[in-house]
Amino acid sequence: MSNKTIYGLPDGPKNLKPLFPTVKWEEVEDYYLELYDDNGTQLLTTPLNKIGCCNDENKKIRISFVNTLGTVDGISLIKIEEEFETKSDAYEKPLRYPLEKPIGGNYRYNIKANSTYKGISACYKEEDMVWIKELLSSPLAWLQWKGSEEQTDDHIPIVISDAKLITRKVEERYVYEIQIAFKLSNERSGIKN
Amino acid sequence: MPIVSIYKQPDASSLNAAYRPIMLYCSALHTLPVSATAFVPPVVYCDIYFNGLFYKTLTKTQSSNNPDFATGITPTYEFDIQDAAQEYLRAELPPNGGYLFIYETFKSMTAAYCRFRSSGYNSSGFIVSEDTAPVQRTGSKPPVAGTGKQTNTFFILNMALQHEHNQNLNTHLKYIKDKTNGPWSMTDAYPASHRPKLYYVGLSDSDYYPFVYKGDSELKCIKLYYKTKGKTTYQTDQFCRCTGRIIGTYKLPDAIATKPYLYEITAKIDAPLSLVINTKPAWMTITATTTKISFSGTPARADISPTPVNVNITIVNCNDSNYISFKDTVVIVKPCEGSIVGTPKLPTAYAGKPYLYILNLLIDLPFSITAPPLPPWLSITIGPTTIAFSGTPTVADISATPVKVDLEIINCGGANKIKFSDSFLVQGAPTLTLISDTITGGIFSRRRRQVFRVGPYVYTGYTYKLKPSFAPGNDTVVVAVAGDTPITIAQKLVNAIRAKGYGTPIYTLISSGTDITTEIRYPSRFDPEVVY
After folding, report:
1. pLDDT at position A152 over 90
2. CB within 10 Å: which end of chain A, N or C, has fewer?
3. A-proximal residues of B, 12-41, CB under 8 Å
4. Which residues of A touch B111 (CB under 8 A)?
5. Rounded to an integer, what distance in angstroms lies between the CA atom of residue B76 and that of residue B433?
6. Angstrom distance (rounded) from CA B348 to CA B460
7. Residue B496: helix, strand or coil by DSSP?
8. Which residues of B touch A67 (CB under 8 A)?
């Protein structure tokens, strides 16, 4: 008997491909799912999933985030900017006489290095902004990460930057371009000596 | 006094958001009052259980009202368990990519209830809790199961409700169903995301659609509706996973030695399946099909045991990936029995003589009897292990037709029936009757000649009397003994009068067959009587 709890129904093409291997996913425009129990009773119907917005593999990023209902939602964005930023402190050490060629006097320490990403989406409409608010106010978020060096695909934790979002405007109300900035939760590691 | 009532609590099986008050209210009295007016408990406890396991205890030392003993206002206590739920619950991240069938969370939703306990003071002045306080398992120490007055079991979900949302989570989630692309189960499933009705995903995106499930069935099939580019209609495909489950709850009933045993459980198990029997009693046969698990056999008397015997099986299906476990115990009890001791025979009843016959039973209690039609004088009295027939028949009850008694003794809830059939006669009573009383002799020597007749029924123990009017109290008495007949009784009466002498002339004293003739001075006389 299935437990009484919260479940996640495989809903993305990546999850559904193993379950429906005969479907030509490259040709699918949109789709939805129904779930049935062992009595044949229909339990649910998903929203209509549309493939096509933010679908360029080279440009898109996908963020998973915890929504206000305590579950994990996802949103695909077009990556418009990736910025690498470092911060450090400086110290100066006394020099010996005579001066040695490779030894300097000014050094940096406490180096903090991280990347900041920016993504946009213009797929969602004014009525969807309520859900976008959950994204921007989410306490926990992850970047879907493509596995490399023999590692499987996984999630990398990110910190969504505080932002302002116009959820209702007077002109061009049919296009809402949302912009999200975030940085990786773990900074780059360096060595000290 | 215990917890008086739980007067406000979440509905059973309702959904509740962890990030808003989850209130439980009870009223309680002193467990061990030190005086008539000391009725406010020093502490009231709320033991919180998540998924059936004790999590933590909240306490209140102050009531939320102003209790008044005189007017009967009992102290009330309020507990908000949202903090405990927020500590316990977690958001859980599904994997990136394929996951077999459905991703299940373990700490995003919990079944919850609270057990309230009241308290009082012991004779040393220490606070003493009512019921048993639960204790978690620590190291090698086993847990202690707590007791108390239990609330409904409801669900708490790791969810927050916004101010504009309906504050009833069930209702709020019901409204999200409209943001999907089709119908939902009314009560078993709810959406757990506010995602838009038109949702965008990329071809290589991993995504899980979160939903709440609180039904009793297995999640079985995913049906995909998809539309390819340039087409206007949707094609479908379906994926069903292999499942198996026992439907409902089960409890092996007691097995009765020497009686056939059969217990069946309804199941829904995908074939092929295999049955692994881990433990079972030797007499028991267990079979499993896709729809039924059967436990059968006949235990012998040697199997009777007060200790429950473990029955532990596992049904394996879905290419050895699904395990359906059955664990229970069965008690083998002795069969319920009953019998009549010996070979009873109802004796003859005699008019005027009290009748009593007792049937002794060797029987498992309780038992009852079917009341047979009996003559009015005869009644049945049921004792602990006896059935007594008693009463006193009258002359009117004398009959050549025997009284028939057909009795059915029933015990074991109707499973055991013992029949008793017999009959007996009601016969006449012994008599001594004056059949002739004449005056003889001259005017100066008048005599009384009386003839008495002994009746045809003679029974041991009956007393025949002839009572002389001239010697009150000095009766002629003959007690019938075994072997007496009416003739011998008549002879004995004559001999008894002769032995008495009475100091007065008896002119005639003879017995002739069943008749006795006496002749004495007039107006003296004998009066006959038979007593038991």
Report:
1. yes
2. C
3. 18
4. 4
5. 89
6. 13
7. helix
8. 193-194
